Amino acid sequence: MADVLTEATQVRVLRFTVGVGLAVFLAAWLEWDLAHIAPVLTAKFLVDKPALHRETVIELLLAMLVTIGLGMLLSGGITQYPIPLMMLIGLMMMWGYYLFTNPKWNLFATILILAILVLPFIAITSATASGFLAGGLTMSGVVAITLFALAHIYFPEPEAEFPGFAPVMLTPHQRWRAAFRALLISFPVVCFFFVFQISEAILTMIFIALLSLMITGEKSVKLSAFLVVSNGLGGLLAIGSFTVLAIVPNIGFYTLFTALLAMVMATKIYTAGEKAPVYVTAFSTLLVLIGSTLLSSGDIDSTTITRIVQLVVVGLYMIVAAYFLETRTWKFLQPN
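and the corresponding structure tokens:
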């Protein structure tokens, strides 16, 4: 395979493999709260930000600071007032969706949405736990940023100068409209989970919230079907991975095996062209399933099946929600 790859592609594959492998090792070794998020963030940073520049690091550090601030805010008692809490979450989610449409702030928005969902959800039952999870999420972010930087330092891109962020393709009106449509899809689910405190399926809520913005434009039903396929592929890879990992259940083998998967998937990501998002989403799903299962207590088989079922539910909900929005003629949902 290496002989058909360009030198630049080989560097990117190696950078991705080393970065994700180290993140997996540190998460399994240190096992801090939400440690399994670190490999997912590392993979996302390496794919979404192909070069290391000061502006990228500043964006990611700001996201970590906001996470800490949210943890402190939620630990202060706002969760005692459900209606203001849900209004605040809804407004912050919409702001996060708006920022997500700007390439300069999409990673910041991802971490923001993740924080405003997980931390309040936990803070309702335990403000102290919310503080610990804020620290854990921040730790995962710091580890991901550090590995992202180190991977780029040791395996740099040939470009020396920062070319600037990609331009925003939408007008402010279109960005707010997309943000509002995403909120229409995700917020009912978020409210449902918060009201009934369904902690066992929090992964479903997070996936729906993070993926909602993807299906606010044209061909949203097709994009929803794409999510089902890519998440299904990630689930199948996870099942196969658990079978292999059960043979040699130790950190070293877990790290090397995941790094091997990262190398294979990175090769697909950097050579598949338009199909690359399928492999990106599938690998993210794989990391979430493996990390959240192996680094938590309980029976692996039942936990894996439960999480895969949750992902199927996510995909089905996305298809139904996308079809519903596409068939509406409400004036406030129209482009103009």
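(Above: one complete record from the training split.) The chain has one domain: 2-333.
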